[in-house]
Design goal:
There is one protein chain. This protein has a single domain (8-124), classed as 2,3-Dihydroxybiphenyl 1,2-Dioxygenase, domain 1, CATH 3.10.180. Helices cover 20% and strands 38% of the residues. It contains three helices and nine strands. It has helices at 17-28, 58-61, 82-91, and strands at residues 8-13, 31-36, 40-45, 48-53, 74-78, 95-96, 101-103, 106-112, 118-124. The protein is globular. 23% of the residues are buried. This is Glyoxalase.
Length: 127
């Protein structure tokens, strides 16, 4: 069980570990925790540890073929200024998968990492 002193970890299957590390560190503010590229790396941001598993990693080999594609699951990152983040990321060539959606809790947009895994950027209402 994860305790407050540990990270919450999410595994994403990626086509190219170094490309994924570059995406998460340069565009989304993660830092490298460990790297065994080209098979595996993990990056962290706050309490989130994102496991980036390439085709040669044990995590990718253990996944059934019909479950190995990117789905609707995504990591959720809270931002202070959604519009500024969108402008910054568009300027770096990020691939957005939705328009901004507004709801009672705030505003969000989806972008994709190089392997197509989704990242939700969310600005809570009132910010």
């Amino acid at each position: 069980m994860t305790t407050s002193e540990q990270y919450a970890s999410v595994r994403y299957l990626v086509d190219d570990v170094q490309e994924a590390v570059d995406f998460y560190t340069t565009r989304l503010g993660f830092t490298v925790n460990t790297s065994a590229a080209p098979a595996f790396a993990d990056v962290v941001r706050g309490p989130l540890r994102l496991l980036l598993s390439g085709p040669a990693s044990s995590g990718a080999r253990a996944t059934p073929g019909d479950a190995a594609t990117a789905g609707r699951n995504r990591i959720h990152l809270t931002v202070e200024d959604l519009d500024a983040e969108i402008d910054r990321l568009r300027g770096s060539g990020a691939a957005f998968r939705s328009e901004v959606v507004s709801g009672p809790g705030g505003r969000q947009i989806l972008l994709a990492d190089p392997a197509g895994n989704l990242v939700e950027l969310f600005q809570p209402a009132g910010r």
